[in-house]
Amino acid sequence: MIFSVDTQRLLALHYVYPLPLQKLQKLLSPVDVLSYFEHAYPKDIASALQISKQRALEMSRDFKRVMTLPFEELYAQVNIFPIPFNHPYFPAQLFEIPSPPTVLYVKGQCALLARDKRIAIIGSRKATAYTRDAIDLIVPPLVEHEYIVVSGLARGADAMAHQATIQYGGQTIAVLGHGLNYIYPKENQALAETMAENHLLITEYPPYFKPAKWQFPMRNRLISGLSQALVVTEAAIKSGTLITTECALEQGKDVFVVPGPIHKEQSKGTNKLLLEGAIPVCDGHQIVETLSLFSSKN
After folding, report:
1. pLDDT in tens, 35-76
2. CB-CB contact of 105 with 202 (8 Å)
3. Domain 108-297 has CATH 3.40.50.450
4. Residue ranges of the domains in the chain?
């Protein structure tokens, strides 16, 4: 169910406590606590959100402090556009993932969110030249058929996917595991600046959120959630890449995997995915043809 909310109140609440959509719904139904949040009893907030009374009291105090700040104007001054869950630009696909975000914060070309043809390309942070070669075979056909490439701006395969998409004249989206006041890793600063102007950066965290380890696995569900399918280049057995793959499989997405040399550590995870039923892929034309075939059957 899509609830009607006051955007100013929602942005103020999300600033002090970036809660997922399921928790927000507890504040909106059966009683709309958000409409009088600053006057609500801490015990009622604690009960609705399943948090401690102390945390609820802190939230209430912080909410009163920031409630009157003109969030949309302040964000606009730094070219950040907040997209609440009930905004027309909010991607409908994200309602189908576990724990949908309540607000997305974006920089760049928001219209990219209105286009449905999106493919995620991910892989190891320690990606080798093999990933670069694979991406050079995969990305051009995707660009030719107007697919947007989604990845996570991490070092290694993610950065290679974004850079190749830009090089071949396509559009790309980076999903971040932190707020837009930061770029991580620093080595991708220039790439991020290019994307913030001509492509798209997106995150579920308010701008002041610093990079933290636990946030990156969380963002993986958004990478797969935004995409029709997932492409994995290289991944070791114990790899964060496989978390994204699990998200994609749980969401019913197709997973394409680049086969790798059996003696290479960075191919052990991908080859294992192939044994478990992932679709082997050697170039982007295969991906386009496979997705077109599945689409025509539906």
Report:
1. 999 999 999 999 999 999 999 999 999 999 999 999 999 999
2. yes
3. yes
4. 1-69, 108-297
